[in-house]
Amino acid sequence: VSAPNRTVLQMCPLLPSLEAGLKSYDTVRLHEHPDPAAFLAERGRGIVAAVTSARVGVPDDVMDALPDLKAIVHFGVGYETTDVVRARARGIDVSNTPDVLTDCVADLAVGGLIDVMRRLAAADRYVRRGEWTPNGYPLTAKVSGKRVGILGLGRIGRAIATRLEGFGVELSYHSRRPADGVAYRYAASAEELAAGADALIVATSGGDGTHGLVSAAVLDALGPQGYLVNVARGSVVDEPALVAALTEGRIAGAALDVFADEPNVPAPLLDLDSVLLLPHIASATHETREAMGGLAFTNLHRFMAEGVLHTPVPR
Ligand code: 8YV
């Protein structure tokens, strides 16, 4: 019996430069098969690595159809779409692309905060509609000096905080436990954080551990003068509660790069100038996406050559 091929499974369309890198291996593109389950039943043996995005992950049924799988490589820092506990129980290691996107995601969070408080996109629409009259545009809210709460003080949350120090804002945060060596005020819960903030920026990871963390109660604590920015995952926010709070004016506005069911955006938000709607673009710059693709490829390459991933997700 000859040794099986060491095949790589591509789960979804990826950055062109990363797809070009995958060509150096025997790679199969699952998303191009009309019947993926039948394809895997026939060809699953010999697939040792899967390359996927944060959005798609490797679903349980795909994992179960791959008896030789040993590595899952994510293009993206988030990996909540893959059951890592299940993977590791089977001896499959998992990697993501941390650090390389931190700057761009933090930049966009600050941009979103300024946009929604100063209503930049709405003002642009106003000018384009030809409605500009002297003093005609409503006054907005000052950003500098405000109280900003950051939910999740990981790499991205810290980078957001560092940027906002330059705006003279008063920073506080909530995470599972207080972070070592951090001078910002720690709030014991998301609700307490929101109650003491003019703006709440969501920078946690997604997945079960943070699902619905920004609840109706948290939004009410943020209050009618408060703004929400979400660059994390739509799942972290109770989206129906957010839509209700925005349409009823129980919070002042929101800048949203992520949604519960992308690319579907709740219809009532489309009519609100108090909301900035972005199509999940926080990491989407040439520089960062190339760096993410490079790091994903380094993970695959090291696994294929040495049997280890370069940036495995934490245990
Ligand atoms: C990307 C992201 O949109 O890294 C993540 O977790 O959500 C974004 O950077 C995504 O990874 C692209 O698939």
TrEMBL record:
Q: Tell me which InterPro entries the record gives.
A: D-isomer_2-hydroxyacid_DH, D-isomer_2_OHA_DH_cat_dom, D-isomer_DH_CS1, D-isomer_DH_NAD-bd, NAD(P)-bd_dom_sf
Q: Which residues form the D-isomer specific 2-hydroxyacid dehydrogenase catalytic domain?
A: 23-313
**Gene3D superfamilies to which the protein is assigned, alphabetical:** NAD(P)-binding Rossmann-like Domain
> One Pfam family, short name please?
2-Hacid_dh
Q: Which residue numbers delimit the D-isomer specific 2-hydroxyacid dehydrogenase NAD-binding domain?
A: 112-282
Which top-rank group of organisms is this from? Bacteria
UniProt keyword terms in alphabetical order: NAD, Oxidoreductase
Query: PANTHER family per the record?
Result: 2-HYDROXYACID DEHYDROGENASE YGL185C-RELATED, 2-HYDROXYACID DEHYDROGENASE-RELATED
Question: Family, per the entry?
Answer: Belongs to the D-isomer specific 2-hydroxyacid dehydrogenase family.
Q: What is this protein called?
A: 2-hydroxyacid dehydrogenase
Q: Which organism is it from?
A: Nocardiopsis sediminis
